[in-house]
Amino acid sequence: MYDFTYLKPSTLPEAVSLLSSDTEAKALAGGMTFIPVLKQRLARPTKLVDLAGLGLSGISVAGGKVRIAAMTTHMTVADSPDVQKAIPALAKLAGGIGDKEVRHRGTIGGSLANNDPSACYPSAVLALGATILTNKRIIAADDYFQGMFATALEPDELITAVEFPVPEKAAYMKFPNPASRYAIVGVFVAKFPTGARVAVTGAGQSGVFRHAAMEEALGKSFSPEAVGNVPTDAENLNSDIHASAEYRAHLIGVMARRAVAAAG
Amino acid sequence: MPQVTLTVNGKSETVDVEGRTLLVELLREKLGLTGTHVGCDTSQCGACVVHVNGMSVKSCTMLALQTEGAAVTTIEGLAKPDGTLHPMQEMFREHHALQCGFCTPGMVMSAVDLVQSHPEGLTEQQIRHGLEGNLCRCTGYHNIVKAIAAAWPLMHGKAMPEAAE
């Protein structure tokens, strides 16, 4: 790891100012992805701005929405009775990320800012039509994810919280990589009065994506049978040592069917 | 050079570190606490697990400076000063939950956190899920799971609740 200056500001404006005054400075959330990136010398920031002192942690439920502050850890979300009651699928997703040591440190804001194409949280944010709150603006999930490791965030823009609307039903099913627990394929399904939303992570060459054909099928009938046979084109899916694009296309159908069954 | 002040196994320490110094490097190289191991160095194997403010974390994936003001417990801090083993260590010995011993410090620290954070009891499945972040290449986990289940009543001072089984 190359050396850097470690800074831990205590206010959000201070953190933003540190990041905007130095284009080579980087924000540090839980560090569960970023510290390994630094260890591999894939990044060489001048400064690391630790966001742990900004008070950006906590969960609240009000007005049909679950609001999770950016630095809230996966373990806190998984163990939260409020989340378990309002959106059990979201608590379950958080409880399945990495392992418990990773869940003790990793944060929702860090996961979303990184937008790893195999991360779990992006699928929940997209399928639930959540809103990303930053120090500058409010970003809809449909506008936020812009490809593998790419988001709508500007360099000095920090996520402060995520707001999830409470669905009628939802579930997440993932086929995990047995070593990393990242999703080889993960499918999040959600049913709202206005229709169904389906988001797929782990499979797409451009990261998380919505599955329009499955959403249409589930809009007509929210049942495992309705979605299991909806085909997925393998053309834009990932092929790697873990799974071919064709296998991932098949897994999307299987995970979607299981997710709808689990949603009840 | 930056400094970090933290408590390690109950003792206050102030140490010169670089920004890039990892917690595990602070423990092993600066404080000589070599019970915490580095296995994969990629936050998968769990040999480096320690407690920071009571929570199990992978010390190869945390910066030393992130522990400013924190209370860190390592494997060296579990046994009593007179050498009496922690119940988890005792049960690892009793149930032969180790062979080469390389993963053991991380396993024990992870297991202690798992038992402490589940006062309602633990099923075998929960124990196995709780050990996802710890890899062992010798014993195959069965005896480790047995040891953790056996340590639960000793750590909580009562029988494991039936409902958790």
Account of the 3D structure:
- The complex is a heterodimer of chains A (264) and B (165).
- In chain A, 35% of the residues lie in helices and 23% in strands.
- Chain A is α+β, with helices and mostly antiparallel strands.
- Chain A has a five-stranded antiparallel β-sheet with strand order 4-5-8-6-7.
- Chain B has two domains: 3-76, Beta-grasp domain (Ubiquitin-like (UB roll), Roll), CATH 3.10.20; 87-159, DNA polymerase, domain 1, CATH 1.10.150.
- Chain B contains five helices and five strands, in the order E-E-H-E-E-E-H-H-H-H.
- A five-stranded mixed β-sheet of chain B has the order 2-1-5-3-4, sandwiched between helices.
- In chain B, helix 3 (104-116) crosses helix 5 (142-156).
- The radius of gyration of chain B is 16 Å and the shape is globular.
- Chain B starts with a strand and ends in a 9-residue tail after the last helix.
- Chains A and B meet through helix 2 and helix 6 of A and strand 4 and helix 3 of B.
Q: Terminal Cα separation of chain A, in Å?
A: 48 Å
Low-confidence parts of chain A lasting 5 or more residues at pLDDT below 50? none
Mean pLDDT of chain A: 96
CATH hierarchy, class of the largest domain in chain A: Alpha Beta
Query: Mean pLDDT of chain B, nearest integer?
Result: 95
CATH class call of the largest domain in chain B:
Alpha Beta
Based on helices, strands and strand pairing, what is the structural class of chain A?
alpha+beta
Query: In percent terms, what proportion of residues of chain A is strand?
Result: 15-25%
Q: What is the largest interface, and how many residues per chain?
A: A-B, 27 and 28 residues
Q: Supply the number of helical segments of chain A.
A: 12
> At CATH's second level, what is the architecture of the largest domain in chain B?
Roll
- Compute the number of structural domains of chain B: 2
* Rg of chain B, alpha carbons: 16 Å
Oligomer: heterodimer
Strand content of chain B: 5-15%
Tally of helical segments of chain B: 5
N→C terminal distance of chain B: 52 Å
Adjacency order of strands in the biggest sheet of chain A: 4-5-8-6-7
